Amino acid sequence: MSSSNFIDYVKICCRSGHGGAGSAHLHRDKKNAKGGPDGGDGGRGGHIILKGNSQLWTLLHLQFQKHVIAQPGGSGGSSHSTGANGDDIILEVPIGTIARDAETGEIKAEITEHDQEIIITPGGRGGLGNAHFKSPTNQTPRHAQPGEPGLEEWTILELKLLADVGLVGFPNAGKSTLLSVVSAATPKIANYPFTTLVPNLGVVAYRDYKSFVMADIPGIIEGASEGKGLGIRFLKHIERNSILLFMISAESPDIAAEYEVLVNELRTFNPELLQKQRLLAVTKSDLLDEELEAEMRATLPKDLPAIFISSMTNKNIMQLKDMIWKALQEA
């Protein structure tokens, strides 16, 4: 996913179809001059529907589609003929997409499965024909219902990536490098802040043909939850990860302090994120000897499973996969 093609937020105007009007027809033929009411009902207006598609990873295809308009329902006819329903508009979106009302912020739909369909803007109901209003005291009703108007509302579509493991860390912590080593993903890697400008996904192969999905989230800086840097834009993607793998470079002067900064940013953004299982990987540990690694391990949080790894030399990469798989089974 290149930065120019990854779109995780779009705002569109959805207008569902009006319901068709019912018919007020009175039956007449050469054998029956007063056949009574036989007006049919109007058809339903078209819905706006979200449909999950596991082959999509971004909302790019909807970026420039600002208005979505469904067809109105057809009017009812004679001989109790019901009008045709308006054609529905189906918007295919990636798994993990949320639809919310642009004015109230209320969540209207959440797509979590392939081919899942949810109506986000229902079409208007068709009006009843005059046949429904016949009674002993009114045997020739000459009125029918108009169709219900459709809805017009602005809807925000927001993508939150679904992944088993989310990589959390400061810029240059080695997240993209790890993803490139353990999966076929090819994220941009360089030694400057914010090399990763969009989330990257990779499928990690494990033992016995098992696999799990890993997401490289753009680096978090202190104050990201308040809008600094890139963090506030991408912190939402962490909400959908099963477990969080914190990655801190062995070059850090205080690993425990950096870990607390990251935890605090997650807590400020959404306290529920701290309920997820957490692991810690100290990266670039090929720079350490055994004695220095033992000293650093003694300073790490006691209740946090931790491992020292190196993506360049593959140090403990398989052991990291084992740790992640075990955590996923527990989660």
| N-to-C span | 28 Å
Secondary structure class reads alpha/beta
Low-confidence segments: none
Question: How much helical structure, as a percent, in the residues?
Answer: 10-25%
Rg calc: 29 Å
Total number of β-strand segments?
14
Instruction: Please state the overall shape, judged from the principal axes of the Cα atoms.
Output: rod-shaped
The succession of helices and strands, N to C, reads: EEEEEEEEEHEEHEHEHEH
Could you give the order of strands across the largest sheet?
10-11-9-12-13-14
Largest sheet: 6 strands, mixed
The portion of residues forming beta strands comes to: 15-25%
Give the averaged pLDDT, no decimals: 85
Number of contiguous helices: 5
Structure description:
The protein is of the alpha/beta class. It is built from 5 helices and 14 strands. The strands form 3 sheets. The protein has a 6-stranded mixed β-sheet with strand order 10-11-9-12-13-14, with helices on both faces. The chain is rod-shaped and about 105 Å long. The chain starts with 8 loop residues before the first strand and ends with a helix. The mean pLDDT is 85.
Relevant terms:
alpha/beta, 5-stranded mixed β-sheet, about 325 residues, single chain
Helices and strands in order:
Layout: E1 9-15, E2 48-52, E3 67-69, E4 89-93, E5 97-101, E6 107-110, E7 117-121, E8 152-159, E9 163-169, H1 175-182, E10 200-205, E11 211-216, H2 231-234, E12 241-249, H3 255-269, E13 277-283, H4 290-298, E14 306-308, H5 317-330
